[in-house]
């Protein structure tokens, strides 16, 4: 071998040895560089047990990497493997055939400034403040990257954020064929693991580098605890419990830069959720959406939109609201249909089509404790919303409906309104100003209205402090128009309201003693043409009912309740209503209680622009009363101008019944008008008129001078009949007086409840007549036969007759009263116990005529 050959051989040997040394030392160099770089970036300690690098195969193995940060964070990996194809680098293509990481523990931390740190290192791996890389030259060749296989096993990835910490335990993660060269080839991902102890499985196909990036994922998340998201809630809110679940398919597209289209199909669920606030508490056993979701997030200023289609179900809802003092419980709810919001920033553009089914619904109020609404089932069928200006419902149906039910144990279940079925059909809410309902059909209902002893209405009382306040501050200047517009009432129109036959209305009044209870069985009830915005359109009314089984009640006609002044034309009929149960009300208003009787009424209620003209034809059968309150009795007697018993007695027919016309007039707008006072006045007038008319008829032709009232010096009101006339100075009954007393006797025989006061009186003409009688008697004595006047003492010239004393006149008045009494008792067989003779009196009126006053 020549010297040149030996030199070349030595050179090659040395190069080979150097190359072999470099190959041997390269893993150590890599190990040293990695450890040094980790320390420079803030690691307190960084160790690697082994590095194995094969440049011929392009493989790198790192074993037992352990990085400890000063804050306690750690980066550990038991096994890391990288396989790179070196030849593709010459074509500016990074081809990672395999990347594998086993038994690793990695922590990422996000700071408030938006920087991400790995395992507590001091230098961020993501820095938003880092200057942007210069834009690459468009003409320069570009590098492409291909990741054929990424595999992670038994790896934990920890996230630490300012308000949330999470741990992702990766049981197995495999990513296949992620390629920037073949952009249309989708990458495949399979993942199984746990997120904060919640099982997670994901299968995905990704095309992130395509002209239209697209991501398809099948995700399944089970029992993800909600309490860990407490930090993301607004202040005051508390998320105490609950679990979140996902099981469905996602399709996420990016049709243009900064624009996203997200579609989801599957199941989203919340279980045992518990959300609390100082003013509210909400809990739900289960809330689930099963269907599809579409979310559009366009670029620029275009509005995001949302569409939903499927079924929303809820079980075990419990809502407690402190401010209004309300609670809502619901056993089950389901909504099936579609929801769309064209602009998420403007919810008024909401569109919805579907049906809602609620079961076991309860809405309650704490003070006073009552159930506002309870329903075994409440359905909203074919609900359609096209913005808040157009809402339509084909039908609302309620089964087992109860409204306004007190919750006290003693009164539980006594709802103001209860019905086994209620249906409301064809509902429309237009322009937020008009509510139209075609039909309200109430099933066989039970309506209970109870007035308590204190005058309040059970189930209807308004809680203290909720009444409209008086004297509220005036609106600021210039706000009148806005206030008027805001207070514009919603116009409500209802085609028909019907109540099924067999319904009952029970009225209980505990404010009177004894308590009044009346049950009305409704056979037919119908209202038509209800329209608050058409005051001239009459509301039609038809009613047929039975009260206390045997009393009939009918009402037919129309009413205009929504005009400025009330108008109506209603015919009302009542048949044989038993009156003794109403005795407490009569006792309060008249001072008389009802012993027996029933009433039948035919009424015509005509009201024209607030002016009442009501006619009532009453028939009182076997109606008898007795006084219970002296003060009230005197008041009604004064209105009648006679005792009520007297008035009623004069009106009875041979069958002990009374027919009476009772008109009621007045203005409903008059602040001093009261319907009870108007009825009392009308009743008093009708009774007085009817009683006087009857007595005049019974005493014909002697009833022309009948007077009614309370006379001077008298405490009692009564009927003053035409007096019995006597000749001046006489106490003898003439033929005409006898015939008049015969009429009086017949009246008293027919009306055994009537009593008669007999009051004799003398008049100035009686004094003159008695004086003339004495003069005549004196003249007769002087001219008596057989007397020559020789034995008598001679009369003095000019001697006068002794004046008539007042006592003589009082004696004459008393004789007249007794003559009338004797005639009624002896001739006409009137019970003397019904006749009361007064103290005789003297009349001072010179024109008064002698007689006996008769007062019923």
Radius of gyration computed on alpha carbons: 53 Å
β-strand percent reads over 45%
The count of strands amounts to: 37
Note the gap between the termini: 173 Å
Total of helices: 9
Going by helix content, strand content and strand pairing, the class is alpha+beta
Uncertain parts: 464-485, 671-675, 709-716, 787-798
Mean pLDDT: 82
Strand order of the largest sheet: 19-20-22-24-23-21
The shape, in one word, is rod-shaped
The amount of helix comes to 10-25%
Main beta sheet: 6 strands, mixed, barrel
Give descriptors for this structure.
856 residues, alpha+beta, 6-stranded mixed barrel, 6-stranded mixed β-sheet, 9 helices, 37 strands, rod-shaped
Describe this protein's structure.
- The chain has 856 residues and is an alpha+beta fold.
- Helices cover 18% and strands 48% of the residues.
- The protein contains 9 helices and 37 strands.
- The strands form 2 sheets. The chain has a 6-stranded mixed beta barrel with strand order 19-20-22-24-23-21.
- A hairpin with a 6-residue loop joins strand 23 (503-509) and strand 24 (516-531).
